[in-house]
Amino acid sequence: MWARLIPILLLLVKPTVSRVSPYDIDDIERPDNVTGLDVKYYGNIGSYYNGSLIVRISPQRKAHKVKPLDGNACGEYEDRTFEFIWDALVGLIPTAPNAPSPNPFFLSLYAWDEGYRLPNENEPANYSEYQGTWFHTFSSDQKPIFYFGITNQTDNDRSYYFDGHMSTEFMRQLDIPFNASGICTPTSSKEDLLFKGTYMVPDSEAHLEWMRDLSVPTIRGYFNLGRAYISISGYLRAISEETELVGKAEVVFQGQIDNARSDQLLLGKKRPEWNATLGFSVPAGGDVASVAISTKSWKTELQGLVLLLGLALLP
């Protein structure tokens, strides 16, 4: 009888596979088996905020064409401002002690056109490349797309304030693609309203003086237990099929904390710290939801074990 039962027990009692279990102080990742969340967006310890990304672009007449593009899409907005709004998700994540960073925390941002949704881990986006963007400040070579620091004046501040500037390193770009249909006057070509925009940094070798004198794009903001605000300002160059726009651009994120997917943010530190609470709200029963999920899975396995044990003991 026991010879029949032992193989069954070995199949049932399997170690729980986890990317990080238990937590390692030198790691910022969450355990796959505990969170039950889409690792693509919520795979790290930190605070996550849901909100909107407002993009404001002001094409300027003085910014002469860099290449001979003949189109005049959105020409009615020269020396004026147009804007569009996307849904957005921001993650603010601790730096890993075993992977030093020049910044006090990592920042990730996903934005997509209103009316759509973020795809899960295994499906393609349901919106076009002109209806969303993303960037993060993670960097394996310690040269992130932005450099910033905490600017808090006292340890009693109830928010973390930060500011900094964009990297001027080659290939460190922040792209803002957009579809100007419904914003600008229609043109003979629909493709002429599909722009791929990139924030510009000073170029000392540029043949146009205004490109040599550009200011470096800046970033600033704050975040706390309830809200997050991030603003990125600078010059943007956007090119479509026949048109080029160059001018000032501001990207502003405003969002509310997603408590169900955020760890406890500890305030008053020299750099942001989080209590790794597995990213779940505490349910009414008092147990952390992640523990409840683990308990449920063990109950299911135990019920199956009892059932098979009973079958194995039958004559």
Automatic annotation (TrEMBL):
Signal peptide: 1-18
Keyword entries, A-Z: Signal
Top-level taxon: Eukaryota
UniProt name for this protein: Uncharacterized protein
